[in-house]
Specification:
Layout (H helix, E strand, L loop, with lengths): L6 E4 L5 H12 L3 E6 L2 H11 L2 E4 L5 H15 L4 E4 L14 H22 L8 E5 L3 H4 L5 H21 L5 E7 L2 E2 L2 H4 L4 H12 L8 E2 H12 L10 E4 L16
Parallel strand pairs: 1-2, 1-4, 2-3, 4-5, 5-6, 6-9, 7-8
Helix pairs in contact: 1-9, 4-6
The protein binds NADPH dihydro-nicotinamide-adenine-dinucleotide phosphate.
């Protein structure tokens, strides 16, 4: 068991990548708390996995403060933070209202910064912070400006925090998922036919010729969270089926 005796918090642990990671962390012996806004999926995860499920909006300062009070009461400290909660909105620049841009940046960058800031009072030397980035920060996909900018912000946040927290023995790394089958795709406001076309286009870009599964990312997060990654700091672990590393091998380029 790679996380035996460790205490972990996963934001957005009631769905997709966060939920798969919670399941894996529990299997590896961790005590796990998850957050999200949806009470029903939080309750299901709590029943199924035995995790502590806390309803908490990452954008709400009061909720954030009570969240870490609760973690302190239940766990006393925190060994692992997976700052995973995030949203995606895809639209052409001229059809993107300022509010959508702000919502994406506030959820994916500002709230990550504030969550890490609030968590640090419970973290000591040996603790690990994992941020959830995206290949979108690097691919230059169209209609993704807000999302891509937010995930580039996550990458920069990771590097800077790794520098700042190294003297305290706290590691900060980022997992960089590619196209992963999770509910995030249904949540985007894109019409179904445009979403299907987008998915086909994205799949044609993947050298390993399949979309990723939430478990593929959970495996990578487990590594970054574990003591096996004790010397990994400020790194980006790309888990994208080869999109960033060998784009020319994608199905769209095969003869
Ligand atoms: P999901 O939509 O399944 O999960 C998103 C999670 O974030 C949910 O648990 C949701 O819970 C939570 N969340 C969103 N907004 C808030 C908020 N304001 N407060 C608290 N929780 C919130 O999608 P994924 O699992 O795919 O996404 C997880 C992360 O992975 C995101 O950061 C995403 O950007 C990243 N990612 C995903 C990729 C993919 O292809 N799926 C690719 C690259 C990165 P609730 O709705 O209950 O609030």
């Amino acid at each position: 068991m790679q996380l035996k005796g460790k205490c972990a918090l996963i934001t957005g642990g009631n769905s997709g990548i966060g939920l798969a990671t919670a399941r894996r962390f529990v299997a590896e012996g961790a005590r796990v708390a998850i957050t999200g806004r949806d009470a029903a999926t939080l309750a299901t995860a709590a029943n199924e996995l035995g995790v502590t499920a806390i309803r908490s909006d990452v954008l709400d300062a009061q909720a954030r403060s009570s969240l870490f009070d609760r973690i302190k009461d239940e766990f006393g400290h925190l060994d692992i933070l997976f700052a995973n909660a995030g949203i995606a909105k895809f639209s052409p620049i001229e059809e993107t209202p300022e509010k959508d841009f702000d919502d994406v940046l506030r959820t994916n960058v500002t709230a990550v910064f504030l969550t890490v800031k609030a968590a640090l009072r419970l973290m000591d030397a040996g603790a690990a912070i994992i941020l959830n980035g995206s290949m979108a920060a690097s691919t230059g996909s169209s209609q993704s400006s807000a999302y891509a900018a937010s995930k580039a912000g996550v990458r920069a946040l990771c590097r800077s925090l790794a520098g700042e927290l190294s003297p305290r023995g706290i590691r900060v790394n980022v997992v960089v998922p590619g196209v992963i089958e999770t509910p995030i795709w249904e949540r985007t406001a894109v019409p179904p036919e445009a979403a299907a076309a987008r998915e086909r286009r994205l799949q044609g870009m993947i050298p390993l010729n399949r979309a990723g599964r939430a478990e593929d990312i959970a495996n990578a997060v487990l590594f970054l969270a574990s003591d096996e990654a004790a010397y990994v700091q400020g790194a980006e672990l790309v888990v994208d089926g080869g999109v960033l590393g060998s784009a020319a091998a994608a199905p769209a380029h095969r003869r």
